[in-house]
Design goal:
mainly beta, 0% helix, globular
């Protein structure tokens, strides 16, 4: 079992966030955690104040709201800085996105979105 980090990077005044991760990838570019792995989500740094965070996902091959993440309801779950999530599936492919609010340089709440990292759970052993 491994815990991989997704660091969500955002800046004041820019709505679309980016990310870095140490999660292994397949040749097609999908991230490839195994069923007993975990993902930790860090927003800019350990001290960033995040509000209204939502991790939403859906299957890549059928139009249904579902999630590989334990605790998700109807494809979504709340997320805060340093959230660690595990999987409740043994295999499959999902797209996910994260929406959240953080204070901007003027001290006001600002919406951010991290679109479309893709996961394929359990396709090959690490």
């Amino acid at each position: 079992m491994s815990t991989y980090t997704f660091t969500v990077n955002f800046k004041s005044g820019i709505k679309i966030a980016t990310y870095t991760t140490n999660c292994p990838t397949l040749s097609a570019g999908l991230y490839n955690p195994q069923p007993d792995d975990k993902l930790q989500f860090i927003f800019n740094d350990d001290a960033s104040d995040i509000q209204g965070g939502k991790l939403s996902s859906s299957k890549m091959d059928v139009p249904e709201r579902s999630s590989p993440f334990s605790g998700a309801v109807d494809g979504s779950m709340s997320i805060v800085n340093n959230s660690v999530v595990s999987f409740d599936v043994t295999q499959g492919s999902w797209c996910f996105y994260i929406s959240f609010y953080a204070k901007n340089n003027a001290g006001k709440w600002e919406f951010h979105l991290l679109p479309d990292p893709e996961l394929q759970v359990g396709s090959i052993p690490n």
